[in-house]
Specification:
Elements lengths: L1 H13 L18 E2 L4 E5 L4 E4 L2 E2 L7 E6 L6 E3 L4 E4 L15 E9 L4 E11 L5 E8 L4 E6 L6 E5 L3 E6 L4 E7 L3 E2 L3 E2 L2 E11 L3 H4 L1 E8 L4 E7 H6 L5 E7 L10 E5 L5 E5 L21 E7 L12 E8 L4 E7 L2 E7 L4 E8 L5 E2 L5 E2 L2 E2 L13 E4 L10 E5 L11 E6 L4 E5 L15 E2 L14 E7 L3 E6 L3 E7 L1
Parallel strand pairs: 2-9, 24-28
Antiparallel strand pairs: 1-4, 3-7, 5-8, 6-7, 8-9, 10-38, 11-12, 12-13, 13-14, 15-16, 17-18, 18-19, 19-20, 21-22, 22-23, 23-24, 25-26, 26-27, 27-31, 29-30, 32-33, 33-34, 34-35, 36-37, 37-38
């Protein structure tokens, strides 16, 4: 009887018989333990919802929460363990390291003890319907490409003046002309150090055969010439006529020019500044200089009306440009790229009905002051790219524009690149001009644009032609087509 009483009196402390786990308040409580995976992969642009699990030795009720982590704001979790992860864009990561690995610290508690576990989601890429195939390799130092109106072929130009027909139907090229400066007395001249700069076939090329070319001559001047098909075909050396010559000053001008045909069928020319650190002669701001300008070139319908023949009119419609970096017309707007000196590349926009726009160089690069004394009324860029070696930095901006394509993803994307090899896009809906877009606003698409053969080292030109075909010209001589994936 005494033995039974003793056992009864001690049961609250130690239990009797059987040796089972005690629920005694003096027993040692064990912390809960996670049983679900600590990492998971998720394809971009798709949300994630999963149930996190854990066990507790004492079978107590558990509750879950977020305890921290570099990317905690991307996650939420219910007390019952349902973890939600917001959809993320692989091409524009927002995680702390910008490496598409989103990290959070999860916590589970039994009411007394808490266990933490690091958890991560690795976001993987989807090419979003984009594929790239190489059509041709073998161009030497290519600088420009343009679709030919009324034709399925392209013009591809090299720095040495060679301008090629390229036929995507056969992936072959044939030489059209070797463009060269021309002197009325001395005849064809050697190209200058900067070589051929830009090309633009006329809107009516199929009938008039006019190809406009900007090039540098041996004196360092910029010449814009009209190359005439009927004379080229005849084999005459004097196969072009002067449209405009811009004489260099004391400095060699900043290399670069852009040509394009506007929706008004007029020729547009963008020029770099007259050269030197911070545009030493202030040419980009001077109304008496044609350097650093956007110029509309109009044919004179009656060139013999005056005392001397005047074949073209020249309207300066914008100034403050340092180094043109491609251009693109959309409706009545021209999007023009500009490479800054040390800080920023930028994308600018101007309606062709406007006149007198000032993009700010050399007082500003992008929207950043470069030197004091800026005039009032400068126009901010739509977008700017910082110079540097990170994934959304560069130093050789090239503007592509809105491509003609059947790929849904690209129909609402403005594409641009850097000579360092990056390819970026930004939704066209973001290009409102209300704010200057930066790195967080555009996407790096290199994985989406990996070609089937070869590699992209730096795109120098984009072009679209019929029927809904789009092309990229690489600086190492490869020509690629963007096709549905």
């Amino acid at each position: 009887m005494k033995k039974l009483l003793a056992c009864t009196s001690l049961v609250a402390l130690y239990g009797c018989g059987g040796g089972g786990v005690s629920n005694s308040p003096l027993a040692v409580n064990q912390p809960p333990a996670f049983t679900s995976a600590a990492t998971i992969n998720r394809i971009e642009n798709s949300a994630l919802s999963l149930t996190v699990t854990a066990t507790d030795r004492e079978n107590q009720s558990l509750s879950f929460s977020i305890a921290g982590g570099a990317d905690a704001a991307t996650f939420s979790i219910s007390a019952g363990g349902v973890l939600d992860f917001a959809a993320q864009n692989f091409d524009n990561p927002t995680d702390g390291n910008a490496d598409n690995i989103y990290q959070v610290t999860l916590a589970v508690s039994d009411g007394a003890l808490t266990t933490n576990q690091a958890f991560s989601v690795m976001v993987t890429n989807s090419r979003e319907g984009i594929a790239v195939r190489r059509l041709f390799t073998g161009f030497t130092d290519p600088v420009a490409m343009a679709p030919i109106p009324g034709d399925t072929r392209l013009f591809v130009a090299e720095r040495d003046g060679s301008i090629w027909y390229f036929d995507p139907a056969t992936n072959t090229r044939s030489l059209y002309v070797r463009a060269a400066p021309f002197d009325p007395i001395g005849g064809p001249q050697s190209l200058g150090a900067d070589g051929l700069l830009a090309i633009a076939p006329s809107a009516s090329f199929a009938t008039d055969g006019d190809l406009f070319v900007a090039l540098s001559d041996a004196r360092g001047n910029i010449q814009v010439r009209r190359f005439i098909r009927r004379i080229i075909v005849s084999g005459l050396l004097n196969n072009s006529e002067e449209v405009l010559t811009i004489a260099r000053g004391a400095q060699a001008p900043t290399a670069g020019a852009w040509l394009g045909i506007g929706p008004d069928n007029e020729l547009y020319l963008a020029t770099g500044d007259a050269g030197g650190q911070n545009d030493a002669s202030n040419s980009a701001q001077s109304d008496s200089s044609r350097f650093g300008k956007l110029i509309r070139i109009r044919r004179n319908p009656d060139p013999f009306a005056g005392a001397a023949p005047l074949y073209y009119f020249f309207d300066i419609i914008a100034k403050g440009i340092r180094q043109p970096a491609g251009g693109f017309f959309a409706a009545n707007d021209l999007y023009i790229g500009d490479r800054g000196q040390t800080r920023l590349g930028e994308l600018n926009r101007i309606a062709i009905t406007q006149i007198g726009i000032n993009f700010g160089w050399p007082f500003r690069e992008g929207n950043v002051e470069n030197q004091p004394g800026a005039p009032l009324g400068l126009t901010d860029p739509l977008l700017q790219v910082s110079y540097g070696s990170k994934s959304k930095q560069g130093s050789g901006l090239v503007i592509g524009g809105l491509l003609t394509t059947s790929i849904t993803e690209l129909q609402t994307r403005f594409i641009f690149s850097d000579l360092g090899g990056s390819i970026w896009t930004v939704p066209t809906s973001r290009l409102t001009g209300g704010t200057v877009l930066g790195a967080s606003d555009y996407e790096r698409r290199n994985e989406d644009f990996q070609p089937d053969v070869g590699a992209i080292s730096g795109i120098v030109a984009f072009a679209s032609g019929p029927p809904q075909r789009s092309y990229m010209l690489d600086r190492d001589g490869e020509l690629f087509e963007i096709v549905p994936g």
